[in-house]
Structure formats: C-alpha cells, structure tokens
Amino acid sequence: WSLPNAERYALQYADGRQTYITESNRREIKNGSILRLTTSPDQEAERLYSGIQSNNSDVKTDSLKKLASLSQDVTFAQEFINRNGLKQIFYIVEEGNDTGEMLAHTLKAFMELMEHDFVSWETLSATFIKKIVSYVNMNAVDASVQQLSLSILENMVPTSRLLFELVKKEVTLDRLLTHLQVTNAQLQLKAMALLIALLLAATDAERRDMMDYLREKNIRQFIHKNIIHSSEPLGDEMAHYLYVLQSVSLNLCERRMRTSMDPYSQEQRELLQSLRQTAFESESEAPASNFNTERRRSLCAKEFRKLGFTNNSNPAEDLRRAPPGLLALDNMVYFSRHTPNAYSRFVLENSSREDKHECPFARSSIQLTLILCEILHVGEPCSETAQAFYPMFFGQDHFFEELFCICIQLVNKTWKEMRATQEDFDKVLQVVREQITRTLSLKPTSLELFKTRVNALNYSEILKLRQTERLHQEETLAVPVLELRERLKPELLELIRQQRLLHLCEGTLFRKISSRRRQDKLWYCRLSPNHKVLHYGDVEEGVHSPPIESLPEKIPVADMKMLLVGKECPHTKEKSSGKQNKDVLELAFSIVYDVEEYCLNFVAPTRYEFCLWTDGLSVLLGREMTSERTQTDLDVLLSMELKLRLLDLENISIPDTPPPVPKPPSNLNFCYDFSHAEP
User: Fold this and answer.
1) How does pLDDT run across 623-638, given as a tens digit for each residue?
2) Yes or no: is domain 36-232 CATH 3.90.550.10?
3) What percent of the chain has pLDDT over 90?
4) Any idea which fold 489-633 has?
C-alpha cells in the first residue's frame, strides 16, 4: 500500500490472542483470518515504555493495563525487554506505594513477560522480592494483587536454592495458612500452590520440619472440613495440590521403610521386646528372675514363635528386609499400644490354634506393610498431573498406622474365612491386597467407612467378583464362533470410528503445560460437524463447550499430514531430558499440518481423552486406530454382539467342524405332490 515509514506499522490478528505477524509466523496465517494494521511492536513498546513513566496516573494505569495484555505476545515482549522495560517495572514496584489496580496491572505484566523465559528469575533484586513478599504479608491489599504476588513467588521458588530460602524465610507458614482460610477460592488456590512449591523444593529434613509444623497447626482438619467438604466442587488444580500434600506426607515414612533393623540398637530391641511383653505379660507373671538364662532364652524364643516371627531365636533377622524395614516394626508397636485388646486377641487366638492353621502375626504385618507401601506409593516421586488423593487421608491423624490396624485385623479375618494353612500365606495376602485396592477405589470419605466396606468385602464376595470378571473375559473359543467374530469386526470398527469422530466434534478442553509449572491457561479444540476443519482457540476457566464460532484458529483436515505421539512430539523434545515428565509423555500428541509442516501440540487431560483423540485423528488421516481403548471397546462390543447371537445356543456345545451333510435319498417319493391338490 506504499505507506510512508512502513517499518512503523505491523499486522496483528484482530481476535483471539491478537498476536503480531512476523517473518517467523507469517506462514501460519489461515485463509479467513482477520488482520488489522497497527503500530509495530517496537513502536508500541517505545510508547508504553514512556507511558508507564508518565506522571499522569490515568495514562500510567492505562499503559500498564495495555502492557499486561500485549506482554503475552513474544515479539512485543522481546522489544519491551530490550528497552530495559523490566527495570521500569521493578522501579514501579520497588518505589511505589500503590496497592490497587495499577499495581495489579504491573504484576500481571511482569508475570507475562517472565513467562517467555528471556530473563532468569535469579536476576531479581532483593528489594523487589521483599516488596512482593510484603504484599503477601500485608492485610490491606487488593486480593488480585495478593494472588499475583503468590503466583510470582510460586514460580520463583523452584528456580534456585537461594530464592527458595529467601521466600521460606520471608513468607511464614502461618501467613500461608491465613491465606488458606479465606473465602476467596482463587486466593486459597494460589496460597496452596506456593505451599506445595515450598514443600517440593525443600530438603528432606526441611520438609519433615515443615510438615510437623503444619500438623501442629491442624492443617489436615482444616483441609478436611473447609476444602474437601466445602459447598464448592473441588477444582482440578486444588485436587492436584491435595494429592501432592498426601504424597509428601506419606513419603515421610520412606526413611523408616528403607532402614533395616539394627540388632545392636538398644531402642529397636526394646520395641521388639515390648511386642512380646504386651502379648504375654499376664502369662509370664512368674518372676522371670527365677529362671536361668537358658530357660529364659527358650521361653522368649517360644513366645516370639507364637508372635509369628520365622526366626524366633533372633526375631530382628525378620526385620532386616527393607522395604518395609523398621516401618513394619513401628506399625506392630502402634497396633499393640493403641488397640491392645485387638492385638492380644489376634496373638492369643492364633497361638491356641493348630500349628499349621495359625496366622503368623509378625510375618503378616511385615508383608502387609509392604503391600500398603506399594498401594499408597510410599517412596515414589509425585506425579506432576495426578489428582487421585484419598479424602479419608485428611480425615485422620496417623493415617498410615490406623489403616494398618484395620488391615491387619482383616488379614486374620480373611485367614479364618479361607481356612488357610502356612502354605497359603501368599494366597491370603493376595486376597487382602485385592480387598484393600477394591475398597480404596470406592474413595471412602473416612476410615470408619473404609473399615465397614473392607470387612463387608469378605472372601466369598471376592470369589464372586473374580468369577463374574472371568465370565466377562471368557469368550467361547469354538472355530465357528471365531469365524463369526471376524465377520462382525468390520461393522463394529466402523461404529467405533463414528463414535471417535463424534467425540472430536464435541471437543475437549486442554490445559497448556509449560516446562516450568502447571499453568492456568486453557484452550479448546473441536472438529467441525462436516469433519472438514479442526477449530481451536484459547478459552477462560469455567467455559465447558464454547461454540465453534468463538474458536478463531482453524486447520483444514485436508492439510493434516501426520500424527505424532509421546517422545516424537516437538513439545516433549523441547524439555530437558533430565526433567522429562513421564505423565506428560504418556498424554502428549501433535498434528503435523500444511506444506511447511507446522505442529499443533496437545497434552490430553486423561489417558481416555488421549486414546479418543489419537484414534479420531487417525480416522481423519485414513489410518488404523491403534490405541488400547480401541481394542477394549472392540472386545466389549464383540462380546455383547456374540452373546446376543448365541443366546439360543445356551448349554449346547458347538462342534469345531460343521456336521456332515447327508447324501441325497435314493428317491423323492415322500415329497408332497401339489399337482393333485384337491379343488
């Protein structure tokens, strides 16, 4: 258009993210995209750089507001940072006394600029950090400012040990607990995010101290009452933070779990002896001093054998295996001290049974502790995306030990129901593992409820469930049935294809995950009803099914070249291999499209969504559906279809080969002759 001073202008998307068009992204412009002519990023950066230094507070506030929205664009952010714009933002925060709208825009702009990773968090000045900390610690500050301040600190903590120590020192746990108790859900969430970031960045000793302090302050009771059982439904992010808190708490058991018993430790030997004394003190009231050493030793060995230790002369040997190590001893001692009646009943009941039918308490406890550690993932690192926490964990102090007390009594109950002998030990513990996992999958809200349900799920119930599942899995393997299966497959695969495409038309909400942290940014993607175009765009939190018109970006299906999953995706390659996240790898997929081979990168919210999307995209590309979900869906549909078709053949054995067709008869005189029919 021969504009004079053309370098002062730029094109920008008119809707959506309003990104500037540059040489590097110009090829991504789609037909139908609306662009507008605007001042170039460097001119805009210059104007806003001057605007935020203005003495007129209205001009300054408007400039900061504009800056907060434009800073999302990488080109503008680069120009603004090159002009030393961050220094000016630091100055506004460090020198200003404003705690309202202007400060909120300034902090928002700072967050967006730092998001692009041009500048290291470690370059921040101590004055600036202390100012941010002061907004968290002050009471008379706007909630939006406190939210942004908490977010800034949350991003800062994982980047360096120095920043972690500074934030930990300045923002006390008491202060974070105060923020957790507000009614503003967003502020509560950001406070929880910072608390979790601090816990994850701490050393083992620091983490232990922090958790002890939080326990003193009754954080568990508060979470149980005000967050899990609040009137508002629990958001995904809060569920993730509760999962991390549960995981960190349970991992405090890891040290004891990985420590073998030391037979020379006086303290550990006393704990072991206390188990024997609690169980048999009434029997051994006769003064032991009258016995000689040999007699006393044989009596102790006999009692340790009754307790169920395999090595009764030196029971410490049984606890040398780690895991479960000393954690098993801790659990046994907790059970004997907190439920002495149940403990005595367990031991005495089994010591009076026949030798081969007695349930060994110590051996069962050691194995059960190991099973509980595996089920509750003790000693495993936290997942970055999981949200599976147990509500009952926050409803109980000493959760692990209390759970053990319920389950060790379950072992005894199941042992009796199975009429087990010593040879059946592993079989019994396998059933107990199944009882525990099945009950935990029901997400009981309290340990009492868990106890009721796990005891109701007795051995005969487990057998019934196993039988039902086996029948579901079993298919008749006769040759004619297998042939029928093959004949039904194409029709059912077509049905699955249609379902996948319908799911893509409904669309899914995806979360953007950066290399540094879980992000709040969401985007939505859906297929047009005619299956010709893929529409996508950013959406706000709380939007569940935006109309296609509101999604500005589009990719014609005809332009799609291939589908990449897992490690092949560009957005998983970008991350440093050291921090490669297993969860993200399992849920990542990308579409390569256009001649230039651009990529649209996804991280599915769940494995189910991942399977549906990768299948649907494979159908659009004319490829086979390869996800594990396709196989399970096909198996379910085939099983149902076969059962319906074979209903009339119930209890009839189907031969492998069809019965032979008999020879034609020598004459056909037995046929009815219609020509002589009566009039």
Assistant:
1) 999 899 999 999 899 8
2) no
3) 22
4) PH-domain like (2.30.29)
